[in-house]
Amino acid sequence: MSSTPPPIVHWIVRMNHRNRTSCFVLLFAAIGVQLLDQPLGPWAWVALVLQFLIGPQLQYLLARRSTRPIRAEFFNMLVDGAGFGLWMAALGFPLVLTLILSIGACFNLTAFRGLRGLAEALASMAAGVLVVVALGSLAWRPQMGGLATALGVLTLHVYLSLVALSAQRRSVKLHEARQQLRASEQALQQQLEQNRRLHAQLEEQAIRDPLTGLFNRRYLVDTMERELAQAVRHGVPLSLMLMDLDHFKQVNDDCGHQTGDEVLRRVAALLRTQVRAGDAVCRYGGEEFLVLLPGMSEAQAEACAQRCCLELAERPLEAGGRALRMTWSIGVASHPAQGGSTQALVAAADRALYQAKRLGRNRVVVAGGPAPVAMISAHV
């Protein structure tokens, strides 16, 4: 069987119960000593016991079981104030006790309710005084004996010490809560930053070819549409190179696919060095690559393709423990000469590429251009 956990008592209720229990015992003693010299009769002792010995426990039970414990506790403090006023007037306003009782009533309510609480404390004490006035027992006897004065001063010292201790504990807990909050905020910020970096990494991975690190076709489709729209809007050229490694299947067959993968990585790295930073270099599929050249005319794109073709043919690639010579077949197409859509540009470049293949490879063919010239022959 699972037991129901005890209800959580509000900290104000617990603090006031502790303070009442401790201080009211001392007040009972201080008022009792003063009461010995007063002709108030046995009912005064009954009232003293009820308020200062039994009252704190009843008040605690009332506030703890209330559905609105804070409101019940404020009522308890008003009852305390009225009782204090009654005792001040009944005893003839002894100076030290009057000071102590008024400080206790005003301090409590002001601490929790501000100026409104101070007004309520003064009103509650005035109500207690009026009860004595109505009974016709009001007198002026400000003197106090030494023992009653000492007990009163001790009561005030204990009360202020308890209040200070409670304030210090609340301050420590508040400081710890703020530290935990700051730590939680820092952890949350770190988690958000990690999520942001992970999101950026995933976005980057989604548009990158995992083997070569070049952009993939997904990125190419979106970028080509955007760049072509800008070229049309601003009246500037847009070119692209569609490139295919010659005899790449022979590399895979003779040297293995791992060597073939290394060749693709090295070719991709070499290709990046031959184009501008703003050009989009993509792995189009298999051993095919596509380079998008924004703002570059057909003649400039052809010169760039010839440079790429020559650089690859003249530079052996170290892969699989061997020096391999590779060559490109490249088809070049440009806007506006080859049409106003990305499909038309890619189709024109593809036709030019396959023309370069048919003419013997290792050459650049411009869509709609003159007959191409072969570059350096390659061998493995």
Automatic annotation (TrEMBL):
The chain crosses the membrane at residues 21-37, 43-62, 122-140, 146-165. InterPro entries: Diguanylate_Cyclase (IPR050469), GGDEF_dom (IPR000160), MASE2 (IPR007894), Nucleotide_cyclase (IPR029787), Rev_trsase/Diguanyl_cyclase (IPR043128). It is an enzyme of class 2 (transferase). It catalyses: 2 GTP = 3',3'-c-di-GMP + 2 diphosphate. One of its GO terms (cellular component) is plasma membrane. Pfam families: GGDEF, MASE2. Keywords: Coiled coil, Membrane, Transmembrane, Transmembrane helix. GO terms for biological process: cell adhesion involved in single-species biofilm formation; negative regulation of bacterial-type flagellum-dependent cell motility. Residues 174-208 form a coiled coil. GO terms for molecular function: diguanylate cyclase activity. Residues 236-369 form the GGDEF domain. The keyword Transmembrane helix applies. Its EC number is 2.7.7.65. This is diguanylate cyclase. It comes from Sphaerotilus hippei.
